[in-house]
Write a structure and sequence with these properties.
Blueprint lengths: L1 H20 L6 E10 L9 E7 L2 E7 L6 E2 L5 H6 L3 H26 L8 E10 L5 E9 L2 E7 L4 E3 L6 H8 L2 H25 L1 H4 L4
Antiparallel strand pairs: 1-2, 1-5, 2-3, 3-4, 5-6, 6-7, 7-8
């Protein structure tokens, strides 16, 4: 049951990414989906990261392999041009895995829930329109529901549930980190999106 629930949640979130990527053929997007579960079973990893460019999974990390790995052939170019790319992103993903593990336990206690099956998910990414307009988002979910979202225009976090207000106050107390998140969504993410589009242009930029 836990396995099916976790897979369903992951598919729903990825399905949103795939659907949104088809909304406009003239736009391109880079999105990362991270999922942690409190009760791994039947071989399901405790933590998974998937990166998608235009709805195509291009990188993958999980707590079983503990390696960030390519999922498309064109990503092999990255390793040749940037030898440190895979090690750097593996270390970053492992750090995220440890952070997610702690946050998941914190949220379980904050919601006053018993041990068992719980999920923590994060979606973040950016979009580049044909007219040059750029968009970006960062959102965290707990047990399949939105927990907290980042408003990059006001540089603040929005807490739709009472349990998220503690997190909101803590994160908003660090304006430098919020400024970094905005810069990542509007600049760094876009720069990487353009790099990935150049690496995979034979398939990603192909006109259907």
């Amino acid at each position: 049951m836990a396995l099916r629930s976790a897979l369903l949640l992951l598919l729903v979130w990825v399905g949103v990414a795939l659907r949104e990527s088809c909304l406009g053929a003239s736009s391109h997007s880079l999105k990362y989906f991270s999922t942690a579960i409190s009760d791994p079973s039947q071989g399901l990893p405790h933590f998974v990261i998937m990166g998608l460019v235009d709805g195509q999974v291009f990188v993958h990390y999980d707590s079983n392999s503990r390696r960030m790995e390519p999922r498309v052939s064109w990503m092999e170019k990255v390793g040749k041009e940037k030898p440190q790319y895979w090690d750097r992103n593996t270390k970053l993903s492992y750090s995220n895995e440890e952070a997610f593990r702690r946050r998941l336990e914190t949220l379980r206690l904050r919601y006053n829930q018993s041990e068992g099956f719980h999920t923590l998910q994060t979606m973040c990414g950016c979009e580049l329109q044909a007219d040059g307009n750029k968009g970006g988002f960062m959102q965290h979910g707990y047990n399949g529901r939105t927990f907290i979202t980042f408003d990059k225009e006001t540089l603040t976090w929005v807490a739709p549930v009472p349990q998220a207000q503690i997190t909101q106050r803590k994160w908003d107390a660090d304006p430098a980190q919020n400024q970094y998140s905005k810069a990542y969504l509007e600049k760094e993410c876009i720069e990487w999106l353009e790099k990935y589009l150049s690496y995979g242009k034979e398939t990603l930029l192909r006109t259907v």
